[in-house]
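Hi W., the adenosine monophosphate complex you wanted:
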Amino acid sequence: MIMSQKLELPLEPQAFAEDIFRIVSHPVMQEVYRFRHLIAKAMRDFLDGEGFVEFDPIMVGPVTDPGTRGAFEFRIPYYGREYRLMRSGILYKQLLAAAMEEGKIYFFYPNLRHEPIDAAKTGRHLVEFVQIDLEVRDADHFQVMEIAERLLKHVIDEMKKYENRLRKIWEFFGSERKSLPDVKLPLKRMTHREAVELLMEHAKDDKVIKDLERRFGVRRPQDRLSFKAEIPWEWEWYLSKIHKRPFFIHDYPRGARGFYDREYPDKPGILMDFDLLAPEGHGELSSGAAREYEVSRVFARMRETNENPELYRWYLQFLRDHGKPTAGFGIGMERLVKYICDLPSVHLARPAPKIPGVHSP
Ligand code: AMP
Ligand code: MG
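Structure:
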């Protein structure tokens, strides 16, 4: 059993099924939950101050986003039809950013994703989690990257005020962190191509390869790097580990993301999108993009990924009649709590975490 040394706190996911009260009443876990509250408040303050309007999440509908990296959808019977629980609020975000006079909207959006069992090993994937999910009309990915970095800086600067309390959490979980970073804007930006080139350079080091093989149980991680695909988990961890401050990767290749990430009209195969990564091995905090909003382009992209346009009837009708350029991103709440509190695993950021494959409360 993994135990934190000081006050007995069982940390593995199964422990939540065995005695959840013992975990959620633990003084350190209570502090983590209080920080989740403080972080949520800091984000709301920032977004409200920027003129965003908050909406309540829409939980069920005829279709949810196409999902990435093999996370399936949950289906429920719905008056003679089959509806879906939302994997993300992307379709509704575009609708509301286009419709609202303010043109700036956000949700605290609970998402349900049937993540593959393997995802449990990353320490970063839950089945149930919350995204702070926002969308802005008449903006592109570069403009919302600026919002993302200012939002993150605001959260980190606010949490710095509580560093004495945070230090106790860090110590408890055996973290070597002494302080949160001084965030200077703009954050570092690199394209997906530049990130992969950098990693290919580091992949020449045998020690790096051996370490990744041992940590992640993958064979020959150097063969998994590609300019045409998503950065594999182990390499994303590595890239994050060699950074001391948050940073962006942008311009992912088509095929790495869903049909809603817009392709540069003048750079076929490259998407107008980005990830915001936390340093110190925490990895992806947020994904965002400018949206594909012209119906013909959306259709073409749907065909590539074998989406059934019939399911997306309301969305395609909305785009055809009222579609507007928008851009947005979602920041994972639990990922952000994990980063700020430097937790060993994301499941510690929720009181009743749903970990892929674990039957917990
Ligand atoms: P995505 O659009 O899939 O990148 O999701 C947006 C954000 O939600 C990600 O950047 C993560 O911070 C968070 N997220 C995505 N999937 C999960 C998951 N399975 N568990 C926890 N957080 C997640
Ligand atoms: Mg992502």
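The pocket of magnesium ion (ligand 2) is lined by residues 275, 284, 287 (CB under 6 Å).

W.
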